[in-house]
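Help wanted!
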Amino acid sequence: MEKRVTFSKWTIGILFAVPQLFLIFTFFYWPAGQAVYWSLTLQQPWGGGNIWVGLDNFRSILSNADYWNSITASLIFAGISTGLAMFIALVLAALTDRQLAGSRLYRVVLIWPYGIAAPALALAFRFILAPEAGFMAVVNQFWPGFWDPGLDGADAMASIIIAFSWKYVGYNFIFFLAAFQAIPRSQIEAAAMDGSGVIRRFWDIQFPLITPTIFFLLVINITESFQDSFGIVDIMTSGGPANATNLMVYKIYSDGFKGLDYSGAAAQSIILMLLIIVLTIFQFRFIERRVHYR
Amino acid sequence: MTIIKRGLAALAAGALSSALAVPAFAEPVKFDFWFGLSGDLARVVDTLCKNFNASQKDYEVVCTSQGNYDATLQNTIAAFRAGKQPTVVQVYDVGTATMMLSGAYKPADKLMEENGYKIDYSDYFPGIARYYATSKGEMLSFPFNSSTALMYWNKDAFAKIGKTEAPKTWEDVGADLKALKDAGYDCPMAINISGNESWQIMEQFSAIHDQPIASKNNGYDGLDARLEMNKTKFVQYVTDLKKWYDAGLIKIKSKDLGQDMVQAFATGTCQVIMTSVGDHGTVGKTQKEGMNWDVAELPVYAGTERKNSLVGGASLWVLSGKSDAEYKGAAAFLNFIHDPKTALFWSTNTGYIPVTKSGFEYMKSSGFYDKAPYKGREVAIASLTASEPTDITRGIRLGNFTQIRAEFGTQMQAIFANKESVQDGIDTLVKNGDAILDRFQQTYPNKTLP
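Answered by r_m:
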């Protein structure tokens, strides 16, 4: 006689899932639903009442030039910082994987930046990149007016990209290194015996084999660059100069909490959520095709 | 195990001792006070609270710093929505309109009357009282920390160009800055152009020159007020500032760039700044050894009849939904703060000015203003009382003014980076600011300012 534990009814399965569903509902669907409701009303900040306005909030946001400027800034920020953070991490991980002198030290040290909270890191970079007091002051001495994040939007954008990338290099590095080390040594040794050089082995063997990791990091980096940039922007530029670094997530904060416009901020966060969903679907639909999962 | 045992023992001992020490009189009524000052100023507030608690036995105020003004308002709103609001909260000047429409407060004058305290409201400096009063003159909140903007000038640098007095007109400022530059000073004057400096560059300037920021008497007469500074002397002022900046007479100094303007002045790097009298103490404490400096009222354009400058700072609001006992405590606390002796303590330990005439007189008579480092702070009172407040100089009552200040910073940055002309930039400021006011008005339909 065969002994097997089965659940006769699907309800028992559901029962087991209930705690998890409950948590997801409480901490995700319920607040998200609340945000959708707020975005369709005008909320009085002190809770005195609200008025149903339908899609008016979305209409006024999408017809606002500043908001489109904020979307553009966010996309530029996401594109450049993701590219920079992933490229540098990839190179560092490839070098560490080759067991060059000191690679054991790098393996530990390169992970640290990710452990630093964004505001602390931003404070450090604010000092490093300050045009009058920090490292860049030296550059400005030789080339007056070269670096001025206080008035030049491009310089300010560059500062937050540098700070954000610096943090995510550490994060990406861990994953890249793990991916490299998962590649069987024998394959690389075989290629080496066949006479292929370091670069050749990288492109023909290692790179194709780590594409799943690259894809994963691409999705994570882009998503995080939309969300985790807040602390850096808040400390380094406050969205300025002249809105040049007013990224979507920062605009949500300043409109919602400083401006007490809860409804407008809720509508903006719905748009941000949709944008991230679309970007992620796009990546899964078109980029994932090129990923080899062995 | 031992830790647990010890913990239990301690608990038992604690319970025993508190049981033994049952007081003969009732426990004092506790109530919360949230404020938005931090660092040195927060320590002074804490001392103030301790002094109040020591001064009587019936009430105990629990004072909690929320870090800054913005956070205090945000946290209070969140707490209010959850029904856990503090009894007394410090709200900054530009949050006044938002508070008035919130329906979440207990009018301060009523509170004092109900609890038997007689406050002479005419004792407040009119420039301060009217900023926080309703259009009918009722005090909904109590002025607390108050300041106004002054011009700080380096006497040593001005001596080099043969001047012994601060410039009184903007025309003189232009000439003096030029002279300072020619005398070899790299940074004659420092300004910053973020949202925070809206206060001295736009709001104080407009008040002193009796120019409106917005229609409807700066918003006092209705939520349908809209911005007007693109048609006032303010345009000329920004044009001049930009001209001086282009000529190298003005430098932009901010913390993000490495040095803020107060530091730039205190170290002798820059010779003139405009900032709050609240920075008077900081400059004194951090100044370069032996540097001679003084403060003066903000200049006006030649031929302008000077009006009173605006008060800055915050007032104390009592929130609704608390028990009678807590309100009694709050009233006692507000009465304590109103006392001239508290005013002396408060102004000595901070740079803030006394808010009542009796407080000012008391401080004058005790010799506070006669010697360094406090000498010069009386200029702030002179500036605030330069005239009887007009309909425009009593203050600014606009919804979500914090966002309009942020917009000021954005457009000033665009102007100074040559992205927009002065007029275009200020026009955009008005357009975007009006959108903020539109939204505020829509959020509070059928409501009027008290």
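OP: Thanks! One thing I noticed: Chain B has 19 helices and eleven strands.
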